[in-house]
Amino acid sequence: MKKTAVYPGTFDPITNGHLDVIRRGAEIFDNLIVLVAIRKEKHTLFNLEERLELVKCATKDIPNVQVATLDKLLVEYLKENKIRFVLRGLRAVSDFDYEFQMALTNSTLYPEMETVFVMSSRKYIFLSSSLVREIASYEGDVSGFVPGCVIKKLKKKVIR
């Protein structure tokens, strides 16, 4: 039986840290669905369509990865699609606190669900989308932090 997992996130924008987790998750699971979340409480730099496009571009070389939109509670998506596994990346203790709370809440709502945590590679432990957006807003070099297809779009968005 094939194992499918989802990797949900806002991906505003997708970073090399996200890609690291995606590549490693794609080795663990037969199918990995990257879910680009609509987050009403977040004011994203890129709209949903742009974020979907960037994630698709960044993951196009990983054959068992698909990209979809998450516009509901994660557990509802999981139930509807008969998926039990959620992949999450951890960078620091602060990530663990939040992720642990989310995993416990989600497993209360959907007991069959399992969250699989992957530690960030040392190379990306500090990296976040908000840090990338800030560096780009000051026209700093983000080429080591994001996939190539993100750089041009990011520069267009943040030009003052």
Topology (SSEs and partners):
Elements: E1 4-9, H1 16-28, E2 31-37, H2 48-59, E3 65-70, H3 74-80, E4 85-90, H4 93-109, E5 114-119, H5 129-137, H6 148-158
Parallel strand pairs: 1-2, 1-4, 2-3, 4-5
What does this structure look like?
This protein is an alpha/beta fold and 160 residues long. It has one domain: HUPs (Rossmann fold). Helices cover 43% and strands 19% of the residues. It has six helices and five strands. It has helices at 16-28, 48-59, 74-80, 93-109, 129-137, 148-158; strands spanning 4-9, 31-37, 65-70, 85-90, 114-119. Strands 3-2-1-4-5 form a five-stranded parallel β-sheet, sandwiched between helices. α2 links the parallel β2 (31-37) and β3. 29% of the residues are buried.
Strand content: 15-25%
N-to-C order of helices and strands: EHEHEHEHEHH
CATH classification, class level: Alpha Beta
Based on helices, strands and strand pairing, what is the structural class? alpha/beta
Main sheet overview: 5 strands, parallel
CATH homologous superfamily identity: HUPs
Find the count of extended strands (DSSP E, 2+ residues).
Answer: 5
Shape: globular
CATH architecture: 3-Layer(aba) Sandwich
The CATH topology annotation reads as: Rossmann fold
N- to C-terminal distance: 51 Å
Radius of gyration: 15 Å
- Overall pLDDT score: 94
Number of helices: 6
| Assembly form of the protein | single chain
As residue ranges, the low-confidence spans are none
Q: What percentage of residues falls in helices of 4 or more residues?
A: 40-55%
> Strands of the biggest beta sheet: in what spatial order?
3-2-1-4-5
Tell me the count of domains. 1
